[in-house]
Amino acid sequence: MGTPRETRREQAEEVVDRLETEYPDSTISLRYANRLELLIAVILSAQCTDERVNEETKHLFEQYDGPEDYANVPEDELAEDLNSITYYNSKAGYIKNSCETILEEHDGEVPDTMDELTALSGVGRKTANVVLQHGHDVVEGIVVDTHVQRLSRRLGLTEEERPESIEEELMEIVPEGYWQQFTHLCIDHGRATCMARNPDCHDCVLADICPSEKGDSEIDLASGDPW
């Protein structure tokens, strides 16, 4: 088992330093050209890989131009255009309803506050944080996706299970200037090394400070299950 730094704040800072060295070009992997495309891509990415979303939006963003197009298309037709995406029927409804709200209440512009974004259909705090950070250059929280959730628990940064509670604790220990980048670093490391089912602890740059390191630890702190 790795030995974490003395405090969670010191642990978080060490994690950021090491992962930034390991992934110097870490950034968002969704492809988009404007705020609306970003919003739609993030809605589609729920429980779906970014790679699949990027494949789907290649034609979607050519076919639909602006909130009017999404608001006016029949929902079943939009769903058919998304049929390779997980939960495409629900997501078609979210996108159509969100675009209707954007037209009716925000003059056709994607809103720039947490409250207004989370009032949109299918938009929770995670999605809103991504849109604020990458669409409006507003960083007021940490995006907690499945990678951030898993790594934060494995590394002993939190014992919380709910994304909202994890975010609150991370905001206390991750340097504010890295709130945005922390997510991208965790995603890159989660994809490359710290996978959910079979993490490559042997080649992990964090193994010596990770209390879940499976060479010695008996428990995966992310799930609470034995290795």
Automatic annotation (TrEMBL):
Gene symbol of the encoding locus: nth
The protein's Enzyme Commission number: 4.2.99.18
Pfam families xrefs: EndIII_4Fe-2S, HHH, HhH-GPD
Main function: DNA repair enzyme that has both DNA N-glycosylase activity and AP-lyase activity. The DNA N-glycosylase activity releases various damaged pyrimidines from DNA by cleaving the N-glycosidic bond, leaving an AP (apurinic/apyrimidinic) site. The AP-lyase activity cleaves the phosphodiester bond 3' to the AP site by a beta-elimination, leaving a 3'-terminal unsaturated sugar and a product with a terminal 5'-phosphate.
Cofactor binding mode and count: Binds 1 [4Fe-4S] cluster.
Cofactor or coenzyme needed: [4Fe-4S] cluster
Binding site for [4Fe-4S] cluster: 194, 201, 204, 210
Residue ranges of every copy of the HhH-GPD domain listed in the record: 44-192
Gene3D superfamilies linked to this entry: Helix-hairpin-Helix base-excision DNA repair enzymes (C-terminal), Hypothetical protein, domain 2
Family (UniProt): Belongs to the Nth/MutY family.
GO MF annotations, alphabetized: 4 iron, 4 sulfur cluster binding; class I DNA-(apurinic or apyrimidinic site) endonuclease activity; DNA binding; G/T mismatch-specific thymine-DNA glycosylase activity; metal ion binding
Entry keyword set: 4Fe-4S, DNA damage, DNA repair, DNA-binding, Endonuclease, Glycosidase, Hydrolase, Iron, Iron-sulfur, Lyase, Metal-binding, Nuclease
Protein name: Endonuclease III
Organism field: Salinadaptatus halalkaliphilus
Catalytic activity: 2'-deoxyribonucleotide-(2'-deoxyribose 5'-phosphate)-2'-deoxyribonucleotide-DNA = a 3'-end 2'-deoxyribonucleotide-(2,3-dehydro-2,3-deoxyribose 5'-phosphate)-DNA + a 5'-end 5'-phospho-2'-deoxyribonucleoside-DNA + H(+); Hydrolyzes mismatched double-stranded DNA and polynucleotides, releasing free thymine
UniProt keyword annotation of Transit peptide present: no
GO biological process: base-excision repair, AP site formation
